[in-house]
Amino acid sequence: MNKKALLIIPPDRFNEDELNHPKEELEKAGVTVTVASTKTGEITGDNAGVATAEVVFSEVTASDYDVVAVIGGSGTIDYLWGNEELIQYLKQAYEKNILVSGICAGSVVVAKTGLLSGRQGTCYPVDVMIDELKANNVEYLVQHVVKYDDVITSDGPEGAREFGQSLVEALSK
Predict the structure, then answer these.
(1) 37 CB contacts (<8 Å, ≥6 apart)?
(2) Which of 94, 108, 120, 129 has the most other CB atoms within 10 Å of its CB?
């Protein structure tokens, strides 16, 4: 599969499973994966794992990718929920028919774009995230993955592999 994915993590405290499982599923299907953040270099996860952000998301063109995914973790709440540049980036990706997706706290970033308004979505099952979905007119569902042809959300580590498989399936169409 000659497709490309941009996985966006916070500059600190991403969730390792939410990054690594989808990344594995995408790469297994032949998708070229680029890890991005608000800075480049080594980034430490919630559980002391590390990842390397190869690019700053705002310095690459979303239309160079087939899917853009916002990865969760405690740092996503602190650094990405209120990141207006990221919210605009996702909206622009969507306008160019790029699949927009998020897992756990990353689903909230997707909800904040308005792309899920009036639709269903999922996130990690904690009140602070569920309340954010509802505040953005998204009906919260208790399931690992909620998928549309243009937007996919996932609940967190437990659904991370299924999230990756859903991205691969969407890119196969």
Answers:
(1) 8, 9, 10, 11, 43, 53, 56, 57
(2) 108
Task: Please state whether the predicted TM-score (pTM) of the whole model is above 0.90.
Answer: yes
pLDDT in tens, 57-85: 999 999 999 999 999 999 999 999 999 99
| Displacement of CA 165 from its chain's centroid (Å) | 14
Reference 69, options 41, 43, 98; nearest CA is: 98
Q: Provide the 3-class DSSP secondary structure of residue 117.
A: coil
Q: How many Cβ atoms from other residues are within 10 Å of residue 17's Cβ?
A: 23
Q: Are 35 and 20 in contact (CB under 8 A)?
A: no
Please say whether the beta carbons of 148 and 160 come within 8 A. no
- Tokens 């980036």: give the residue: 89
